[in-house]
Amino acid sequence: MENEGQGKGLHARVLETLGPEITAGDVPPGTVLRTDELAQRFDVSRTVIREVIRVLESMQLVASRRRVGVTVRPTEEWNVYDPRVIGWRLAGRDRPRQLRSLTVLRSAVEPVAAGLAAAHATPGQCAELTEHAMGMVATSRGQQLDAYLVHDMAFHRVILTASGNEMFARLADVVAAVLTGRTQHQVMFADPDPAAVTLHVQVAEAVRVGDAARAESLTRQITTGAMAELDVLAP
Amino acid sequence: MENEGQGKGLHARVLETLGPEITAGDVPPGTVLRTDELAQRFDVSRTVIREVIRVLESMQLVASRRRVGVTVRPTEEWNVYDPRVIGWRLAGRDRPRQLRSLTVLRSAVEPVAAGLAAAHATPGQCAELTEHAMGMVATSRGQQLDAYLVHDMAFHRVILTASGNEMFARLADVVAAVLTGRTQHQVMFADPDPAAVTLHVQVAEAVRVGDAARAESLTRQITTGAMAELDVLAP
DNA sequence: AGCCAATTAAGTATGACTTTTACATCACAG
DNA sequence: CTGTGATGTAAAAGTCATACTTAATTGGCT
């Protein structure tokens, strides 16, 4: 379990080592890396390293300049919306900060998405929504946090995709990660907030009847609740 | 002006050709590309093509599999938050749809960002804000759209960065692109909506005095106005 | 100060070799 | 005759080593 599985290609393995090192701050901004050294360190050819560098460069994590080397860029310039960067940061040292950033983003996006979903959701999506809301009710008591989480993530994914906005839809994974992170940090025996569960049911209903304003307002209550919860467990 | 400047490296030039072709839909999802064919087509070595493919893969535009080739992935899987993907799509065929998506995203994010800015903005940022709001007032009449745009973009950039949330801050370029796109599509002799100008001044003031609720509400009026404007000029 | 040359590290090209895997072929059992 | 499964082959990406090119930094020389 020391090395990541060798199933993937070489460049993927190198990337999965170097990326997290950078996002975690182990290789601080301004550091200069040389391709030859990296090739030596990972015992791969320079070709492989170059491909990794290209990907890291496309994430704005590094900048490559002739005669000087590969420089780690300052944090503010990183592509923080890249799923892999998000994943690495969530797995790394400043997971709390990252979780907070993402929760704020979620609190901005989800209410608007819910409002749009009320206008655009297909009957099938409405059905899924109520189904998952019911699932949340059913699993909200008695230490079934894992089962609850599955429904919660599915619920929010449907909302985001039913909004009909591709930018919102692509945040489904991020929201899922946030929800997972929150569950993992919660006390194991604490059941979800009953008020939140009720709100989800009401959102599903509002979307079904096409009440955009109500769907938005209710979802805003959910997300502000999530932020308040974050403040309580803040590190 | 036929070819993009040859100042950058080879892989950048190939990327700037292949990327837009994919995002524009000229190379529809499901299409398989072979690396040696691409190498032949662009008259570069396979090494260069491989690096391009890696970057395209990191944008989730393509997937590379052995024995089959490089497959263009379906639109829903693209990394639509990647700045280059956004740029390519804005430059391409479905620019209207993209502009609409981004405007909706903006309408979700900016009000929340403004609320946070009211709580976190430094005195310096408040000064910048009023300065640019004043600039907008000064350039709002008499076909000075370009000068107006500069202040508008700067204003919103300050709001987003002053929010203190890195995810919001990284959307400044996107918002700038949206504002630019809107200006370019407007009739050349139409001055900006006076109501919008007033709202910007009021937002700057609300942020300065730390009235988060008011800053959020005013900004929401700005963004809903922007969306309404989009509906009028909808293609 | 300003210019030129040397040096350094990334960028590119090429060719040989490895690994994975889709596909077709064939054998066998139902 | 058909469907299932084992097997072999070939195609394309993946990897490596090496030689060469290009740009930019550094430092020395005028």
UniProtKB/TrEMBL annotation, chains A, B:
**Any Pfam family:** GntR
Q: Which domain of life is it from?
A: Bacteria
Q: InterPro entries from the entry?
A: GntR_C, TF_FadR/GntR_C, Tscrpt_reg_HTH_GntR, WH-like_DNA-bd_sf, WH_DNA-bd_sf
Q: HTH gntR-type domain: which residues?
A: 8-75
Q: Which GO terms describe its molecular function?
A: DNA binding; DNA-binding transcription factor activity
Q: What keyword terms does UniProt attach to this protein?
A: DNA-binding, Transcription, Transcription regulation
Record protein name field: GntR family transcriptional regulator
State the species of origin: Streptomyces chattanoogensis
